[in-house]
Amino acid sequence: MAPTHDLSIDLWAHRGSHGPGGPLENTLPAFERALSEGAVGVELDVHLSADGVPVVFHDETLARLTYTADPRRIDGLTAAELGTVPLLGDARIPTLADVLDLALGRTRLNIELKDPAGVQATAKLLDGRPTAGVLISSFAESAVAAAAERLPERPRALIVEPGDGGAIDPLGAIERTRATHYHPFHGLVNRRLVAALAERGVPINVWTVNDPALARRLDRLGVAGLMSDRPGWLGRALARGVERIV
Questions:
Q1: What is the model's pLDDT at position 246?
Q2: By percentage, how much of the chain surpasses pLDDT 90?
Q3: Structural domains in the chain plus CATH codes
Q4: Contact of 178 with 144, CB cutoff 8 Å
Q5: Each residue of 82-127: pLDDT tens digit?
Q6: Burial of 184 by CB count in 10 Å (0-12 exposed, 13-18 middle, 19+ buried)?
Q7: 3-state SS string over the chain?
Q8: Most buried by CB count within 10 Å: which residue of 36, 69, 124, 140?
Q9: pLDDT mean over 166-194
Q10: What angle do CA 101, 66, 100 make, to 5 degrees?
Q11: What is the CA angle 120-122-105, rounded to 5?
Q12: In degrees, to the nearest 5, what angle opens at C-alpha 235 toward C-alphas 43 and 160?
């Protein structure tokens, strides 16, 4: 488990716990490592395969995470075909069902939908499973709004980066999408934003933070949580009072 530190902010594992010498992002070993490190939850990315199966992978193509820079698109291969693709370190692409079986009930999950079309397929996988512990998120306002209709009992987050409409008008975007949480790039956060959303009961979780000093600043602002590639290392650094990456 991660060491106790004096921050109230939650440390989430961004694509699981990964990095130099560790498992590949968005793989079952990365999620297992996050569990062992005591992250409060795991963030993961979901695309639909060619046969409509939710699979866990960040990019639209295989290129970045294969030795051969395989240019094929995730949505151009079936889930079975994707499961046989050797990624860096001989890792494999899991399905969302694989991750739910591994982690649901053991930790919280932040399921980021890369494709708005994934709402229905993801909802079918979640039907009948415990309501607690799963948050649906997306950069696409249409996906968050669709999740509000299809999964009203599940919390939903709008993810934003600089220049997005949701970053320019956070309150309007939250109202349009019926988001219950707000997930901005960390550089967009200030005390005024945190206070405005707190008045409406909307927690803020930010991405992606691997720096102890930045984590402490965000904690002082009142941010609820942050996504880190290295939650175990970050937790240990905060416990030791480390203020910068070395």
A1: 43
A2: 91
A3: 10-240 (3.20.20.190)
A4: yes
A5: 999 999 999 999 999 999 999 999 999 999 999 999 999 999 999 9
A6: buried
A7: CCCCCCCCCEEEEECCCCCCCCCCCCCHHHHHHHHHHCCCEEEEEEEECCCCCEEECCCCECHHHCCCCCCCEHHHCCHHHHHCCCCHHHCCCCEHHHHHHHHECCEEEEEEECCCCHHHHHHHHHCCCCCCCEEEEECCHHHHHHHHHHCCCCCEEEEECCCCHHHHCHHHHHHHHCCCEEEEEHHHCCHHHHHHHHHCCCCEEEECCCCHHHHHHHHHHCCCEEEECCHHHHHHHHHHCCCCCC
A8: 140
A9: 98
A10: 10
A11: 145
A12: 35
Query: Could you give phi then psi for residue 107, rounded to 5 degrees?
Result: -155, 175
Pairing of β 41-48 and β 108-113: parallel
Paired tokens of 116 = 């708005």
Token digits of residue 47? 């695309």
Alpha-carbon distance of 141 to 158, in angstroms, equals 7
Query: In percent, how much of the chain has pLDDT > 70?
Result: 96
Rounded CA-CA distance 233/212 in Å is: 10
User: Which token pair is 135?
Assistant: 């948050």
Rounded CA gap, 204 and 157, in Å? 9
- Contact status, residue 211 vs residue 238, Cβ threshold 8 Å: no
